[in-house]
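Dear all,

This email documents one entry for the complex benchmark we are building for the journal club exercise. For each entry we list the sequence lines for every component of the assembly. Then comes the predicted three-dimensional structure of the complex as a token string, followed by one or two observations. Please use this as the template for your own entries, and keep the labels exactly as they appear.
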Amino acid sequence: MCGIVGYIGKRRAAPLLLKGLRRLEYRGYDSAGMAVIDGTLILRKDRGKIEQVDNRHNFEELDGIMGIAHTRWATHGEPNQKNAHPHIDCTGDVAIVHNGIIENYMTLRELLAREGHSLTTDTDSEIIAHLIEKFYTGDLLGSVRKALMQVQGTYGLAIVHKNHDEIVVARNGSPLIIGVRGDETFTASDASAILEHTKKMIYLEDGEVASLRPGRVMVRDLHDKEMKKNHETIGWDLAEIEKAGFKHFMLKEIFEQSESIKNVMRGRLGKKIKLSIKGDIKGCGRVVIVACGTSWHAALIGRYLIEKIAKIPTEVDCSSEFRYRNPLVGPGDLVVFISQSGETADTLAALREAKKKGAKTMGIINVVGSTIARESETGIYIHAGPEIGVASTKAYTNQILALMLLALDLMQSKDGDVDEKMISEIKSLPGKIESVLQEDKRIHAIAREVADHNNFLYLGRGINYPTALEGALKLKEISYIHAEGYPAAEMKHGPIALIDENMPVVFIANRGKGYDKIISNMEEVKARRGKIIAIATEGDNEIKRLADWVIYVPRTADELTPLVNVIPLQLLAYHVADIKELDVDKPRNLAKSVTVE
Ligand code: G6P
């Protein structure tokens, strides 16, 4: 989704802004632009990839030591040059970049037009530049505060004015981070854009505005009250957000899983589970898990784990459904929010709804310091490291293991003993994931044989039904092939009508509970000449009789099978998309962090 970068200091701003924009590319966008102050305000923007816009408008040649830049992901108005950010006011003195959605923009637009402002774009964002112009009397920060008092909706904003040596930033519901190093100040919607310059960050809260000058930051609220802010230090390295020789970030992140999974366990696994959960979860009578996308699939696995291990009734909901259905949650309930980015708009709104109703809230989050992490009462960081590929991989496996630890912790809090065998099974996961990754070449070969099909079905049972959903999601996200995940037994209630020799069916078929039933489902597919790819337990030779291709995974506890099973499905999706020469890391229409409803 949209990205913001800003710089004020002593170096030429344009090359720094351009590099920052490139670091935000992974979020998904359709246009890019920049405004630099160099005596006057210089504006360049257009539709297209950053590379194409730069070729057309030569950002690099711009002088000036302060500026703001943006990648736009269209919500209001089609992607074209005029709708790209920055947006300017009537005088051309003010430029703004905006993430989020202004909900009352139609009313404000009409009002501004009546007052004589000339609005030239189809966006909601442009009105902010005109509101600032309306209230401007020489104090930029003051006019931004007054403008924002008129606005309903969400924003992360950066603003420059041709007569001011400052960048003004503001936040409401859309992340904004400030970084200071010496006499230089940076701002961005996402830490990865400025991480190479500084790791010391200030996180703006909703309702805060700030004036950024070289090496100095002053934060106030909308009523002009000064706010005291602390610096927080980000633990990620630049190397972690680069490709390290892999063709795509997604492939690198798939391969990192044997290492990244260790970070969820570190310091938390022993005779007892140590999660440093704030407050008491002992008395919790019900768990509700809320999330979107891949995180929602992890939530579905979490339900199996918590009900089976901790014996606490658990429900799962999509964030967008939860927040609007007036959910029956309150004191005594633990509501868990899973989000890689910690910024997903629907999940954040769901968190606020649960808090309002008095439930205890917990975040299972990757990005440290993100909004959901900060607003949850307690939480578990999954420590997967930066995930750049839009399709989530390593965050998913870490989320599942974090849920496993939560299930064990909840069981422990009811005076249960953690099974030592389970602990050693968990500890053996990195090695098992590594051995599945060794199957990459073979999975690539299978991908070659199936890449030209238009439909896929993924079937699993029990704790691996969500694995089927996730396998199908991975394939459709990046290869644009239609794929559906189903509980295997539901096949007979519909999908079986689709099966013929053109329909590859991926079965999650580990030995253990439900195996015989899965084999019967495979027989039914075989009888209709469907092609079968089976994810099976090492040593299961019998399955070769039914499956056209078998990918073996090591044996592990039933509860942990989703962690080894998903790896071949991620690789299969990756190779199919790569064979089709698609933009694996930045699939069309998708965004890494969905900060609008
Ligand atoms: C987007 C991403 C998905 C992600 C989902 C939820 O749709 O493309 O990969 O699973 O958002 O994101 P979150 O950051 O809340 O886990």
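Observations: The longest strand covers residues 31-38. The chain has three domains: 3-234, 244-427, 429-582.
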